[in-house]
Amino acid sequence: MKAVVWHGVGDIRVEEVPEPKIHEPYDAIVRITSSAICGTDLHFVRGTMPGMKEGRILGHEAVGIVEEVGAGVRNFRPGDRVVVPSTVACGTCSYCRAGYYAQCDNANPGGRRAGTVFFGGPEAAGGLDGLQAEYARIPYAHVGLVPLPDTVDDAQAILLSDICPTAWFGARLAEIGSGDTVAILGAGPVGQAAIACARLQGAGRVIVVDGVPDRLDLARDQHAETVDFNAEEPVEAALDLTGGIGVDRVIDAVGVDAQRPARGPAAEALAGQAEEFDRERDEVAPEQRPDGDTWVPGDAPSLAARWAVRMAAKAGTVGTIGVYPPQVGHYPFGEAFMKNLTLRMGNCNHRRYLPRLVSVVASGELDPTPLLTRWAEVPDAVEAYRTFDRRESGWTKVALGVEGRGSVAPGLGEAAGTGAATTAGTGETGRR
Ligand SMILES: NC(=O)c1ccc[n+]([C@@H]2O[C@H](COP(=O)([O-])OP(=O)(O)OC[C@H]3O[C@@H](n4cnc5c(N)ncnc54)[C@H](O)[C@@H]3O)[C@@H](O)[C@H]2O)c1
Ligand SMILES: [Zn+2]
Ligand SMILES: [Zn+2]
């Protein structure tokens, strides 16, 4: 079968690889109809999330059809259409039962304290092959797989695999309540989806910070108040917009690949910290293989965290979903302490939110489809990765139609979405 394979920092390829087989009774094999490229995949290719093994199939977002089930899987049969959550969990341990699927005691072969297991990640994340392939082996399929109604198409469902649950989780971490003013750092797919999720959880105002003009346009299409960090100092802008108080809640949807502003007052304010950021970057990404302007690691790993803490109001909350790998040791802890902030963070417990979100999408309350701005085919995946990595205009979220155009929803294709998730419901009624 064809798959997208990681060979090294700056080196990914589309290759023929062997098809997966059932190993354990709770495994299933899923024939993938749609996959997608995520900001998390970029960390592996840029070198900001080390520990990948050569030959690992990439990808942790997929929609597909169950092809085969192990003897222990009683709730699915071949032919069922499913969405695959990015993280893998046993469903039996005390953590899974409490909803902390990302902290499962049993899924990681490295042991209870080894960390979150997800598809297509580093060895420390369980060493599982990923979902940018024609078929995948899904461990604990009886717990992980979520059935899809026919009314939820592949374009919607692929955004339910990781992006929507993570955005929902980010809004929950940030403790968004009725009427809150919320800032979202990062207007990539996760930040875009967080606009709608914040509103569904009650946000009164949403302010979005990024430096990429067309991503800010997409946020404005969703009627978020936008701040371009290359034109304004974002903390000052957030204070101006909130009568000098700051925002009640912040969602950091950037993570370790945060970039410095290239120009404007924010760049001037940070000019003296260049060496400090260089040191942070070299600590985070000991191996870097940029190819011109592609695969360039973020040059200010702690910047989104610093801005998040600074723009929060006293006694506010910061929910961090942008990924920070273990080697990141910088956080503005003292500033957060002095403001009595609440800091919550981590890997999404996808399985906890997914069934509910499938219903929210099926009911029409949320339509994430327009966030998909490009569909590519697997043979073109490397070029799609490169274009997404450079944050080129129009390449905010890239799905991979694994089965070819047949799996692409009507109305999509090269031109794809407008970037505005639509929420029929607003305010408190959606709080859950
Ligand atoms: N916690 C989880 O379980 C989970 C799940 C999925 C994704 N993620 C993480 O969420 C983050 C976002 O994912 P994505 O797919 O949207 O990635 P992305 O790379 O497409 O988006 C990141 C955005 O942040 C912007 N940015 C860079 N520096 C910034 C700064 N200093 N201030 C504000 N914005 C800045 C970039 O321009 C970009 O638009 C990634 O770190 C990804 O790994 C986490
Ligand atoms: Zn993802
Ligand atoms: Zn478990």
Total beta-strand segments: 18
Number of helices: 14
Instruction: Please state the overall shape, judged from the principal axes of the Cα atoms.
Output: globular
Largest sheet: 7 strands, mixed
Low-confidence stretches: 405-419, 424-432
CATH class (first level) name of the largest domain: Alpha Beta
- CATH architecture name of the largest domain: Alpha-Beta Complex
Structure, described:
It contains 14 helices and 18 strands. The protein is 28% helix and 21% strand. The chain has helices at 39-46, 94-97, 141-144, 154-161, 163-173, 189-200, 213-221, 234-241, 264-270, 274-284, 303-311, 333-338, 350-362, 381-389; strands at residues 2-8, 11-16, 28-37, 56-57, 62-69, 81-84, 135-138, 146-147, 181-185, 205-210, 225-228, 247-252, 312-320, 342-345, 366-367, 374-377, 398-401, 422-423. Helix 5 (163-173) packs across helix 6 and helix 5 crosses helix 13 (350-362). The strands form four sheets. Strands 3, 5, 6, 7, 8, 16 and 17 form a seven-stranded mixed β-sheet that branches. Strands 11-10-9-12-13-14 form a six-stranded parallel β-sheet, sandwiched between helices. It is of the alpha/beta class. It folds into two domains: 2-162 and 349-430, Medium-chain alcohol dehydrogenases, catalytic domain (Quinone Oxidoreductase, Chain A, domain 1); 166-345, Rossmann fold (3-Layer(aba) Sandwich), CATH 3.40.50.720. The longest helix is centred in the C-terminal third of the chain and has 13 residues, at 350-362.
